[in-house]
Amino acid sequence: RHGGYPHRRAVYANSAVLGVIQGGRRDADR
Fold it and tell me: How far apart, in whole angstroms, are the C-alpha atoms of residue 22 and residue 8?
């Protein structure tokens, strides 16, 4: 089976989105 756990993909996507959001927030905080 390819990509047995779609949940894992969602978690990865969430992590990436959160990282980008936090990065933008840090930039604005500067």
Answer: 21
